[in-house]
Amino acid sequence: MTERELDAAGVTDPALREAYRHCRRLNARHGRTYFLATRLLPVERRPAVHALYGFARWADDIVDALCTGTDTSRRDVELAALERELEKGLRDGESAEPVVRALADTARRYRIDHAHFADFMTAMRSDLVVTDYADYAALRRYMHGSAAVIGLQMLPVLGTVTDRETAAPHAAALGVAFQLTNFLRDVGEDLDRGRVYLPADLLAAHGVDRERLRWSRDTGRRDPRITSALRAFERLTRGVYRQAAPGLAMLEPVSRPCIRTAFVLYGGILDAVAEDGYAVLHRRAVVPRRRRAVVAADGLARVAAARLRARSAAARRPDGVPLTGAGPVEPRMVEEVA
User: For position 232, what pLDDT does the model report?
Assistant: First the structure.
């Protein structure tokens, strides 16, 4: 599968191909939902998505190295080195770091604005020193770089049927919605890293603070005030999904099944959190295998429909050239969603 993706994308340099393979492995290992959705894209566009994810994952792992005992100063040094390597890679197109090499190639191929990567690195640096957010406005400023720009990076790869400026706010909102979902699911794990991403004013409105969250995490005991705050954060997150939803129809038809699948699967995490009684301080909510399989099957059906429409359109063109290469539909994916 990897070789076919790289061949279709026109990636021929052996070192560059290995860099993309490295990014794909990172995506497969760490981004299960994201990886599944990516496999619904036209085959030639998948390496670019793996590169974008791989770089973001690499930077995030540096920031989250707390679990390995790495102190803040060391992480700051490593992040600064990655940032210098990124600037060089974007400028020269070369890098000894595989994730940077693949990212630079993707940025060149799809003409992705380099400012999006700079904003992302700014957000990563803030994670080294900022451990909570006073209100949602402060959290949104952070998420511009950590999440919104991811949606904006993806937009040139996905393609649009509108002008890109019209679709951009919805793409940014979808990146934010996905990250808010992760924040809710990972409240306990983030707390163990010393971070609270739930806005302090939202928590306070329900009689909750960091100490109350820590107490619940440490004792395993529940508190209705915490449940109420988590429910309010879920409602806030669903509102951002509603802001993002109109953007799905603005994407190129062959890209819609991928993003719709991610949209539904990530939204399913919110459902799982609610169904589990907002117990995120004590365990991670998981979307059931059956539900994931149903969403994947629907995505495959949509891919097949998009391919048929593309073939029909190509048949009507005088030169008979297909509008896109969606690649073969792979029912095997339904079995791999768990």
Answer: 98
Rounded distance between C-alpha atoms, residue 152 and residue 172, angstroms: 6
pTM comes to 0.86
What is the per-residue DSSP string for 6-55? HHHHT---HHHHHHHHHHHHHHHHH-HHHHHHHTTS-GGGHHHHHHHHHH
Q: Distance between CA atoms of 228 and 205, rounded to whole angstroms?
A: 10
Round to the nearest angstrom and report the end-to-end CA distance of the chain.
19
Say if CB 139 and CB 199 are below 8 A apart.
yes
Residue positions counted in the chain: 338
- Residue 288 tokens, joined: 């059931």
To which H or E segment does residue 298 belong? helix 289-316
Q: Rounding to the nearest 10 degrees, give the CA dihedral for residues 15, 29, 174, 331.
A: 90
Listed in sequence order, the residues at least 6 apart from 10 whose beta carbon sits closer than 8 Å to its beta carbon are: 44
Write out the two tokens for 139.
């959290």
User: Looking at this protein, which amino acid is placed at residue 185?
Assistant: R
Q: What parts of the chain have a pLDDT lower than 70?
A: 1, 31, 65-70, 291-338
What pLDDT score does 69 carry? Answer: 52
Residue 160: strand, helix, or coil:
strand
Torsion angles phi and psi, residue 160, rounded to 5: -135, 155
pLDDT tens string 118-156: 999 999 999 999 999 999 999 999 999 999 999 999 999
- Measured over the CA atoms of residue 214, residue 123, residue 53 and residue 41, the dihedral's sign is positive
Kindly tell me the sign of the dihedral angle through the C-alpha atoms of 233, 235, 236, 240.
Answer: positive
- From the DSSP assignment, how many helices (H) and strands (E) are in the chain? 17, 0
